[in-house]
Amino acid sequence: MQAPDALRALVESYLSELALTPELGGLAEPIRYALGGKRVRPTICLATAEAAGGTVEAALPAAAALELVHSFSLVHDDLPAMDDDDERRGRPTLHVVYGEGVALLAGDALLAEAFRLALSYPAASPARELAQATLGMIGGQYLDITGADADLAELHRLKTGRLFAASVGLGLWAADVPEPEQAPWRSFGDELGLLFQIADDVLDGDGYAARLGEQAALGLVREAAERARAALSAIDADTSVLLAIVDELAVRTV
Amino acid sequence: MQAPDALRALVESYLSELALTPELGGLAEPIRYALGGKRVRPTICLATAEAAGGTVEAALPAAAALELVHSFSLVHDDLPAMDDDDERRGRPTLHVVYGEGVALLAGDALLAEAFRLALSYPAASPARELAQATLGMIGGQYLDITGADADLAELHRLKTGRLFAASVGLGLWAADVPEPEQAPWRSFGDELGLLFQIADDVLDGDGYAARLGEQAALGLVREAAERARAALSAIDADTSVLLAIVDELAVRTV
Fold first, then answer.
1. CB B170 within 8 A of CB B123
2. Which of A73, A223, B95, B248 has its CA 20 to 30 A from that of A250?
């Protein structure tokens, strides 16, 4: 069992060596620029695969696919037509550096490359789950830009939660866990997105933190972390690395 | 064997009844608005499947997936950051009606829905081919917006040709044609995109027509149609409907 930091390093190395489709040509540079991040989703995917009896190596393409879908959503979210953000992770956003047209295409390419990676498995299940999660996420982005009075829980379940749940799901497929045995793992995956999102809101002072106040939001973080730990304890496997990831996600706010 | 018009009607009916992912919510309306068009690619897909011994019914999800990828590319191409087109097919473009943010998300959703459809087959081959073709197409769009002196043939091979070739390819997968038997069909598919694109340039007075003059471009249309017919004649099957489609594509310019 490898610790979260070791898994993150493997993701980093896999992404830096990832061969993009040659026909993308010069678009490869902005695509790689967009691939910065904390690797939260791929790390969950790898840790799930290893806990479920699979290998990290077999799960790396799925893990990378999740990170590419996440990056695609950020690149398009940052565009002037959406959130109009000039900076992300302390650097100018993609469209500021390369222009809006290139950023639009780089986002499109990230999504298509994610499917190419998810389709590198013999079975279609990982790509199917990625498609459903991506569609749910886009539904959440639509609520975010149009629904002034949108239900915050439903918005986060779609916009953040679907891809976190799929991070567990793709880890299970990569480890060849049969569908009838996936339920307890998926209960865990369903808790992760909310945990991450509320903690994020506390750090940023928006969303749940703005609506409920910081102390109440911190209470929700603790509750979500408790539910995630309880879900893990119901799984008959060594889930210690996933437990460490839950602790990391929750402790960010302390 | 059904004629092109009958196949187009089946595509039309399939698309109008297509159940979109419920979580897309209100985004379904702009997505459906974007789905107007001549159905050239899905018709080629269905005709290929039927000529290769498959059923039209089995090929309809693949055919629809191709149309959704095509529509996704148009919606994003029309955005102000790209071609900035206000009108398409005699109607205001999506972003003019629904705003840029919604158009961006509708395009994203069209691409993800296309993969969901291509992934409705037991095997991953149709979705794999769709991913490769989409990435080639995006590479072509990148050349189009950045490469002032781009090789026109290479640009069209990517931007238009890849999805036309995949229209034949997905028809073959839907008809369960084994890969070793696909080569003659694929030679045909490789000719279609160029035929369509030059004819389009003649109709619009741009691209090849602008660069070479209308008469020279019309000569290229005739040559491309001849190569497509020759490729068909090398296939040991009743390819009469595909021949009719070639004639339709070529005759548009007369």
1. no
2. A73
Is A116 part of the contact surface with chain B (CB cutoff 8 Å)?
Answer: yes
As a whole number of angstroms, the distance between CA B44 and CA B27 comes to 28
Distance from CA of B149 to the nearest CA of A (A): 14
Low-confidence ranges of chain A (pLDDT < 50): none
Tell me which residue range forms the domain holding B193. 4-251
Rounded to a whole number of angstroms, the distance from the CA of B151 to the nearest CA of chain A is: 13
Which residues are paired to A91 by β-bridges? A88
Give residue-wise pLDDT tens across range B213-253: 999 999 999 999 999 999 999 999 999 999 999 999 998 76
Q: Number of helices and strands (H, E) in chain B?
A: 13, 2
Q: Which residues contact B74 (CB under 8 A, 6 or more apart)?
A: B34, B37, B88
* Burial of B68 (C-beta count, 10 Å sphere; 0-12/13-18/19+): buried
Q: What is the pLDDT of residues A152-210, one digit of tens each?
A: 888 889 999 999 999 999 999 999 999 999 999 999 999 998 899 999 889 888 888 99
Q: Is the pLDDT of residue B198 over 60?
A: yes
Give the CATH number of the domain where residue B39 resides. Answer: 1.10.600.10
Number of domains in chain A: 1
Chain B partners within 8 Å of A158 (Cβ): 23
Q: Any idea what the Cα angle at residue B116 is, between residues B7 and B186, rounded to 5°?
A: 55
Q: How far apart are CA A52 and CA B132, in angstroms?
A: 31
- Residue B228's CB: how many other CB atoms inside 10 A? 25
Question: Cβ–Cβ contacts within 10 Å for residue A213, how many?
Answer: 11
